[in-house]
Design a protein that fits this description.
The chain has helices at 2-10, 13-36, 209-262, and strands at residues 42-46, 51-53, 57-63, 73-77, 80-81, 89-93, 100-106, 115-120, 124-127, 132-134, 139-145, 152-158, 161-166, 171-174, 183-191, 194-197, 201-206. It is of the alpha+beta class. Strands 10, 12, 13, 15, 16 and 17 form a 6-stranded mixed beta sheet that branches. The protein has a 5-stranded mixed beta sheet with strand order 2-8-7-4-5, with no helix packed on it. This is Ig-like domain-containing protein.
Length: 267
Amino acid sequence: MTLEIQMFQNVPSGGRWLLQPLTIFLLFALADRQTADLPKAVVKLEPPWIQVLKDDSVTLKCEGTHNPGNYSTQWLHNGSSLWSQVRPNYTFKATVNDSGEYRCRLEQNVLSDPVQLEVIADWLLLQTPQLVFEEGETIILRCHSWKSRPLNRITLYQNGKAVKYRRFNCSFSISKANHSHSGDYHCTGFLGERREVSRSLTITVQGSADATVISLLWYHVTFCLVMFLLFAVDTGLYFYLRRNLQTPVEDWRKSLSVKKRQAPEGK
């Protein structure tokens, strides 16, 4: 930085306007490089559900690196700073206004990726820690009642069809998930003698990262083989036509030459 300032001072005033944009560009590039070297903070939910009911207790945690004794944290909710929250962990009783996107940043971290939280005012809610799962993972679902009131005779539905039933346990798990487990899920349960129905949520099970890479590799290999075969066929056809068309032309030229020699003189 000192060297850049000295160079800037030694340049004649008439040429300094040319160096100003370059200096600014270099400063921004240096800042971007320093930022890229920093680790990224991570927002975690406890409990891990991305949907909660109104009045549920929610804890947000900002994880990352920091200096010993310095836990100063910047929190963002829907892009706006939460100036009153400066600790890496904070707990609140959820309201509908708390729905949205949360991000955080610690002293020695760049801004985290966003985490979505949806707060719903209802009697019953089917909860999950994520909406997209990889093949082979375990899908975790929980049928949750407002203020955790006693719930019984709980049924889990997939695409309108009952798939699991619990007398009292509200949690469901689907191990080794595959594409057949994708779909719309909801749950029903009884609060006393009153049957409640949750809203539906859409679960997607996608191929694993390794399977995706292998699929893309096979796609490229197949594409290259097809292009090679097309090129080979096209080249072979070209030389075949060239050879077979050239012979009649040569025969026609020879025939024409013979006729000219046989023609009567003077005609």
